[in-house]
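Before relying on records like the one below, remember that each one covers exactly one chain. Contacts with other chains, cofactors or solvent are not represented anywhere in the record.
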Amino acid sequence: MSEAPALKFPLTIWSDPRFQSHQSSGYHPERPARLDAALRGARAVVAEAHGLERAVCAPASREALSRVHGEAYLDSLDAADAKGTRVQLDPDTYFGPGSLAAAALAAGGAIAMVEALLSGETDIGMLLARPPGHHAMRDRAMGFCVFNNVAVGAAHARSLGARRVAIVDWDVHHGNGTQDIFWRDPDVLLISLHQAPLYPDSGWVGETGEGAGAGTTINLPFPAAGDGALYAAAFERVVLPVLDEAKPDLILVSAGYDGHARDPLASMLLRDGDYAWMAARLREAARRWCRGRIGFCLEGGYDLGALELGVAATLHGALDPSAHPTPTEGAPPPAAARIVDGVVRAASPWWRCLREGAAGRAVSAA
């Protein structure tokens, strides 16, 4: 990986008006207004931080997509695009003229962000793209998602020499597509925090990976009405200790905002400050192990106001972690605490930090 360039930006966001060519024939929760709201939140922080906004220069290549998606699936999307008609790829995922181009560009944005992070052009990146990605599986679209953007980015980072990539998924829905793609991969760590039961009805504690990838999938399925205290407990007991033991070369975040208390598609109680706190703690981990490099990929978030504020809070937290102490007080309810205990037990065969307790984890790169 190359040395940092002379001109370095503290924060860079990637977006493109061509993402808005992905449109349904009627109302759909995954709609163009989402991107407009996310951009409002991000641009305000970019201006404050003297950061940079960049357009996505190129769609993901067939080679880059085929690292995480099957050839037959890619062929089927090409065929659907050639017909030029609207189809449903699954009950939730629409696909029409312009959808394939937007999806390939979204995946290309993840590649551009990863390249800028690994080359040292920026420390914090955020991809604001549509359609989202974390439900897209190796061989099919799912849950509003066509290509798995964060997975394309992680695989590209590995191709550039990153030894291990960590993906933290805080979208309220389980990142089942990302799990599917990296289920047997020992070099990509996935930690997903999500509401359960909830679509897509996966991401249970016992789902920990398989073969060489055993232990590199960690799921934290939370009951409805989970708040910042619950997420803070999960971060302190599981997420941060495991990141410190894994020592990734890059941290990517599937950043969904549908866990916000205002979101209409789920039942969690996160607030703006909770997203700032999580981003701050992940940036601190990135400073310990990844030279500060962290990238956020937009996933869900369907209340436009909560999405705008959540994106802004995330970037504020990543830029200045010291300004964002734990925003909530109190312990998680007993049922939720038992889930965290169960995750510790399920993952501890592979992670010494979980056997020894958080007090024994390493906190420096020495």
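The chain has one domain: 9-358.
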